[in-house]
Amino acid sequence: MTEYWYNLETGVVEEGMVSPGYDRAGPFSSREEAARAPEIIKERSRAWAAEDAAQDGWRGEDSGGEGSEGGAEASEDDPAQR
After folding, report:
1. Smaller CB count within 10 Å for the chain: N or C?
2. Beta strands of the chain (E only): which ranges?
3. Do 6 and 28 contact (CB within 8 A), yes or no?
4. Tens digit of pLDDT for each residue in 15-39?
5. Which region, left, alpha or beta, applies to residue 11 given φ > 0 means left and ψ of -120 to 50 means alpha?
Protein backbone atom coordinates (compact mmCIF):
# COMPACT_ATOMS: atom_id res chain seq x y z
CA MET A 1 0.00 0.00 0.00
CA THR A 2 1.36 3.41 -0.96
CA GLU A 3 1.58 6.07 1.72
CA TYR A 4 1.58 9.78 1.04
CA TRP A 5 3.25 12.48 3.10
CA TYR A 6 2.86 16.25 3.16
CA ASN A 7 6.12 18.18 3.15
CA LEU A 8 5.66 20.96 5.71
CA GLU A 9 8.56 22.96 4.30
CA THR A 10 7.62 22.93 0.61
CA GLY A 11 3.87 22.20 0.74
CA VAL A 12 4.33 19.34 -1.73
CA VAL A 13 2.66 15.93 -1.43
CA GLU A 14 5.25 13.16 -1.60
CA GLU A 15 4.78 9.47 -2.35
CA GLY A 16 6.73 7.52 0.25
CA MET A 17 9.22 8.86 2.77
CA VAL A 18 11.19 11.24 0.56
CA SER A 19 11.95 14.13 2.94
CA PRO A 20 13.42 14.07 6.46
CA GLY A 21 10.92 13.19 9.20
CA TYR A 22 10.90 16.67 10.71
CA ASP A 23 9.65 18.11 7.41
CA ARG A 24 6.85 15.58 6.90
CA ALA A 25 3.27 15.11 8.11
CA GLY A 26 1.59 11.79 7.57
CA PRO A 27 1.25 9.14 6.49
CA PHE A 28 -1.98 9.64 4.58
CA SER A 29 -3.82 7.00 2.58
CA SER A 30 -4.35 9.15 -0.52
CA ARG A 31 -2.71 12.02 -2.36
CA GLU A 32 -5.89 14.10 -1.84
CA GLU A 33 -5.87 13.52 1.92
CA ALA A 34 -2.17 14.44 2.12
CA ALA A 35 -2.89 17.67 0.22
CA ARG A 36 -5.36 18.59 2.99
CA ALA A 37 -2.71 18.03 5.69
CA PRO A 38 -2.58 21.65 6.99
CA GLU A 39 -6.36 21.67 7.42
CA ILE A 40 -6.37 18.19 9.02
CA ILE A 41 -3.59 19.20 11.42
CA LYS A 42 -5.53 22.30 12.51
CA GLU A 43 -8.72 20.27 13.02
CA ARG A 44 -6.92 17.66 15.11
CA SER A 45 -5.11 20.31 17.16
CA ARG A 46 -8.40 22.03 17.97
CA ALA A 47 -10.00 18.71 18.96
CA TRP A 48 -7.04 17.76 21.19
CA ALA A 49 -7.04 21.21 22.83
CA ALA A 50 -10.77 20.91 23.51
CA GLU A 51 -10.27 17.44 25.02
CA ASP A 52 -7.42 18.68 27.22
CA ALA A 53 -9.45 21.68 28.34
CA ALA A 54 -12.43 19.48 29.23
CA GLN A 55 -10.23 17.05 31.18
CA ASP A 56 -8.47 19.84 33.06
CA GLY A 57 -11.65 21.81 33.75
CA TRP A 58 -10.06 24.79 31.99
CA ARG A 59 -12.16 27.58 30.57
CA GLY A 60 -10.81 29.27 27.47
CA GLU A 61 -10.98 32.96 26.61
CA ASP A 62 -14.06 32.40 24.46
CA SER A 63 -15.99 30.97 27.40
CA GLY A 64 -15.48 33.80 29.88
CA GLY A 65 -12.16 32.79 31.37
CA GLU A 66 -10.16 34.97 33.72
CA GLY A 67 -8.21 36.90 31.08
CA SER A 68 -5.24 36.14 28.95
CA GLU A 69 -2.91 35.15 31.79
CA GLY A 70 -5.50 33.16 33.72
CA GLY A 71 -4.64 34.68 37.09
CA ALA A 72 -6.64 36.75 39.50
CA GLU A 73 -5.92 40.44 39.61
CA ALA A 74 -4.28 41.82 42.76
CA SER A 75 -6.30 44.14 44.91
CA GLU A 76 -5.02 47.59 45.84
CA ASP A 77 -4.79 46.41 49.47
CA ASP A 78 -2.36 43.63 48.59
CA PRO A 79 0.95 44.30 50.44
CA ALA A 80 2.89 42.46 47.72
CA GLN A 81 1.87 45.20 45.27
CA ARG A 82 3.36 48.06 47.28
Report:
1. N
2. 4-7, 13-15, 24-28
3. yes
4. 999 999 999 999 999 999 999 999 9
5. left
Task: State the pTM of this model.
Answer: 0.60
Q: CA–CA separation, 7 vs 25, rounded Å?
A: 6
Q: What is the dihedral of CA 70, 75, 81, 62, to 10 degrees?
A: 20
Taking the C-alpha atoms of residue 40 and residue 30, their distance in angstroms, rounded to an integer, is 13
Task: List all residues 6 or more positions away from 46 whose beta carbon is below 8 Å from its beta carbon.
Answer: none
Q: Find the mean pLDDT for residues 54-77.
A: 57
Report residue 16: phi and psi, to 5°: 85, 180
Distance, in Å, from the CA atom of 52 to the CA atom of 67, rounded to the nearest integer, reads: 19
